């Protein structure tokens, strides 16, 4: 956005409740899963916030803004969210079985494998 543009929605929840749920209607069940408590899922909250922020920016482009929003933001994020194995996988029939789902397992990498990207490189 050039300069400071005023937001149309005050926050992501207002965007989801007023716009997104009407734009993205799907038959929920085996193929698509949605959680009414989407804000309880970190991945969903982050993806939906990203969709909202992109919409706020691209709504101001009268030429291809909404097309770009659908293609590059809404569709990829919503397909990931609605996927039966996505963040709402444990949310069927308005219940949260195995909730919260544990994070992905990780092992600490060997010492020295990574360096602090915030520090200027030594030796150029």
Automatic annotation (TrEMBL):
Residues 99-124 are annotated as: Disordered. It holds the Pfam family DUF4913. It comes from the Bacteria. This is DUF4913 domain-containing protein. It comes from Kribbella hippodromi.
């Amino acid at each position: 956005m050039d300069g400071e543009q005023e937001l149309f929605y005050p926050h992501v929840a207002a965007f989801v409740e007023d716009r997104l749920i009407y734009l993205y209607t799907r038959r929920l069940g085996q193929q698509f899963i949605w959680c009414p408590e989407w804000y309880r899922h970190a991945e969903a909250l982050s993806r939906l916030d990203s969709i909202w922020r992109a919409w706020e920016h691209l709504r101001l482009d009268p030429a291809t803004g909404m097309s770009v929003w659908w293609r590059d933001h809404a569709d990829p994020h919503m397909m990931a969210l609605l996927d039966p194995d996505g963040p709402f996988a444990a949310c069927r029939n308005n219940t949260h079985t195995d909730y919260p789902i544990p994070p992905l397992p990780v092992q600490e990498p060997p010492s020295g494998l990574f360096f602090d990207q915030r520090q200027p490189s030594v030796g150029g």
